[in-house]
Amino acid sequence: MYKGIKRFLSVLLAVSMFFSMSLTTEAYADDYEYYDDADEYTSSDVCSLNVTGYVNNSYAFEILDIVNAERAKEGLSPLTMDQELMNTATQRVFETAIYFSHTRPNGGDCFTIFPSYSGNYTVGENIADGYSSPEDVMNGWMNSPGHHANIMNSGFTAIGIGVVNCGGRYYYTQCFSNTVLAQATSGSFSDGSQTKSVEANMTSGYLSLNADRKELQVGESTSLYTRWNNVNVSIDNATYSSSNPSVVSVNNGKVTALSSGEAVVTMTLPGSSSITRSVNIKVHSHTYEWKITREPTCTEEGEKRLVCTGCGDIKNGSSETVPALGHSFDVGREIVAVRCRQDGTMKYTCTRCGYVKYETIKSTGHNFSDWTVTVKPTANRSGKKTRTCSVCGKKEYESIPKTASGDSSKNDESKSSQKGTSTGSSAKGANDTATGVTTATSTGTKNDTAGKTSTTNDTKVSRQDTDSSSSYDYNDYYDDYDYDDDYDYYDDDSDGDDDDSWQWYEDNADDNEKLDTSSEKSDKTDKTTVTAAKKKSTKTKKLTLKSKKKVTLKKGKKTKISVVRTPATSKEKITYKSSKKSVATVNSKGVITAKKAGRAKITIQSGKKKVYVTVTVK
């Protein structure tokens, strides 16, 4: 804090009078209007100002103790707090609050306020402002030669000390004399707010008129106040007028807005119509518009109020509720695919708040093709027809009853005779439930056109569940399609990749099943065994990457590679390999784990087919 000090070394009136003054300059910053019109006034232009401040007499007696302690160090007698000098110092400290000088605000000498003494006497004055405590101000005075001289003057016996806080700033005054008129005790003076009347010449400072608010709405009021230099003051019996009474009225320093417009409020000091101060007041009517003061969210209501477009005033009682917005979900994405016999799952995310919901997609059941005859019926055996689900590949079988005529049997026998000897075997499918079937196969020879003689061993087929008059049910030999329900699913949204995928495959144990197509007994030829051709093992013809080819992950995050193998019945495994395991690893399920910053290449292979994923770790 800036600390300004003024001093009077000593003044010897009558016989021995001398003085020395050291002035310091202080700049004040405030929101008052400055009037540089001192030259318009003369010494006779004086106004009476009421100055209010908090008088701290406790500080005054603390300062007295420090003064006497310093005098004792030099072997000097203590000073006595004089009641008349206390009154003088208190008046002077209020005067220095509005005009910091050893000259009084009315233009007179500071000693004109001192008590009247008879005979020869010596007086002196120290002043200071800006210090926050008695210790601080005494330290400042003791380190200033002129002030130090007054405090340590052996001719002084009496002292009066004034301390006041005006506008948050402390002001201090010491008044010295060589005469004690009446001793003052600390119990005779209390702390508290006081108002002192100070005569001020208009040439010694600047007076301003201000308003708490200079812009009003119709019907509002504000109060006027005056300042002298940097201190609030009041003036008794000042008069006020409005340049536009239809816009604002003014009464005893209170301004009321009546209609839109502008007006100048003028204050005239008592006893002098030439001393005036003015302030401009603007008045406007409110123009209200609805404005949202609290935004609604997906789940919580908001609020709107009527707000003035000119001044921001909020109209009382204008609050209304703004309904909650509700969630705004995206189109969703399938995180678990629906299958013929298993429900799927859709994930939806609110685009405003990020709320997530899940919905179940009901399974649709199989989508079978039309029936196709795979084994023609004869008079001696049932036939078989097959249909396949276009979604999952499941097959269903039904038997076809034997034909009513034996023609097909004869045709079959003649075809067998023309082909000559054939060797057959019969085997059930992997899930065959039929029992009691035994097959014996032998090879024999027949008479041909060259007249050779051969013999043929019979192939016997026995069944516990069929006879010559019943239909053979091929569903006993072909069970339902076997799903591998233990598929792996991994969902990782940490990389922003919306490609969630699942993977499943069917491992048919009966891909190489042999169909028992052995002939039943014929009237003309022996039985032969016909062997169905084995199915060839299926290889991967194509790999299709369903997830992104380039993935960016943070250290420690994971993501799942999604790849489709064509055909779905391929027996060749899908393998995964990382080119740089220190950067990213991949397990047998295709789950990538980011290890450290860098880049790695993931190779996905099935048979001779390969695809690649580039992983960047940050």
Summarize the structure.
The protein has 618 residues and is mainly beta.
Task: Describe this protein's structure.
- The chain is 10% helix and 35% strand.
- The protein starts with a strand and ends with a strand.
- The chain is mainly beta and 618 residues long.
- Strand 1 and strand 2 form a beta hairpin.
- Strands 1, 2, 3, 4, 5, 6, 7, 8, 9, 11, 12, 14 and 15 form a 13-stranded mixed beta sheet that branches. Strands 10-17-16-13 form a four-stranded mixed beta sheet, with no helix packed on it.
- It is built from five helices and 39 strands.
- It is elongated and about 165 Å long.
- Mean pLDDT is 76; it is low at 4-40 and 407-535.
Question: What best-fitting shape do the alpha-carbon axes yield?
Answer: elongated
Number of alpha- plus pi-helical segments = 5
Give the rounded overall mean pLDDT: 76
The span between the termini is 53 Å
User: How many strands in all?
Assistant: 39
Classify the secondary structure makeup into a structural class: mainly beta
